[in-house]
Amino acid sequence: MGSETKMVDLLKAEIPFEQEENLLLLPEVESGKAVGLVLVDILNGFCTVGAGNLAPTEPNRQISAMVEAAARLSKVFCERKWPVFVLLDSHHPNKPEPPYPPHCLIGSGEEDLVPALKWLETDPSVTIKRKDCFDGFIGSMEMDGTNAFVEWVKTNEIKIVLVVGICTDICVLDFVCSTLSARNIGLVPPLEDVVVYSGGCATFDFPIDVARNVKGTLAHPQELMHHVGLYMAKGRGARIVQKVSLGSSEELRSGHIQHI
Ligand SMILES: [Zn+2]
User: Fold this and answer.
1) pTM of this prediction?
2) Which of its termini does the chain have fewer beta carbons within 10 Å around, N or C?
3) Phi/psi at 154 (nearest 5 deg)?
4) Which domains does the chain show, CATH number per domain?
5) Rounded distance from Cα 132 to ligand 1 centre (Å)
């Protein structure tokens, strides 16, 4: 166990990245930079134990912490009527998504928000977009050529998107990369920054000693791949933050800044 930990640390040390200490929400909003929260795939099929082919088979600390962080942030955003965009992986049974086995099939319940976030379905601050591909930016494209995410940013005049969800190195990363590409060529006005909250993201665990016994699979050690996902996002120009706080004037004055 000790040597495994050491190996992960060695690998992480080869691709280090710096994180900002704290995103202070109120000072950003009060300076005219509206912040929108994006939740990526925090649904039963990826987060609830035993809920399907891609769900955890036992309780997982990184995934539980991500769900709890997302629930706390969602509460803060909805209480203040700040915009929240919810991406939900949802597949038609006849339309597979290789290389993954069937997952989040429409009507199975796997494609629905986890119990801790179910209340978001009826909250007026929330826009829900179901997608049937990894990349939530591409998955937000509508038949008429518009993009539900781009419209959400425009309508709410969002300058900063705060991204949380699962998986750090798959759907979160793909969404972040596409959004940054689109931003760079002026497709998502008035968006300026994409911020990823590291503790609000998680990925799945499929260690090498399990993967080598399952033909055709790729090893996916959780802690390392979570790190790689954040590293790749940072490399594309995302801001990575360790904490998110409200940062009220009272907190700033007293120096006791509580994170959400
Ligand atoms: Zn999918």
Assistant:
1) 0.96
2) N
3) -65, -50
4) 34-254 (3.40.50.850)
5) 6
- For the segment 238-246, the average pLDDT, to the nearest whole number, is 97
Residue 82 pLDDT greater than 70, yes or no? yes
Looking at every residue in the chain, the average pLDDT score rounds to 96
> What is the Å distance from ligand 1's center to 207 Cα?
21
45: CA distance to ligand 1 center in Å? Answer: 9
Residue 240, amino acid: I
For residue 151, the CA-to-ligand 1 centroid distance in Å is: 23
Single-letter amino acid code for the residue at 91 = H
199 touches 65 (CB < 8 A): yes
Distance (Å, rounded) from C-alpha 244 to C-alpha 34?
A: 15
The pLDDT, as a whole number, for residue 3 is 65
Residues 6+ away with beta carbon under 8 Å from 142: 148
Residue 92 Cα, ligand 1 centroid: separation in angstroms?
A: 10
Quote the ligand 1 centre to 188 CA distance (angstroms).
24
Confidence of residue 147 (pLDDT cuts 50, 70, 90): very high
131 Cα–ligand 1 center, Å: 8
Cα distance between residue 227 and residue 141, in whole Å = 29
pLDDT higher than 80, residue 5: no
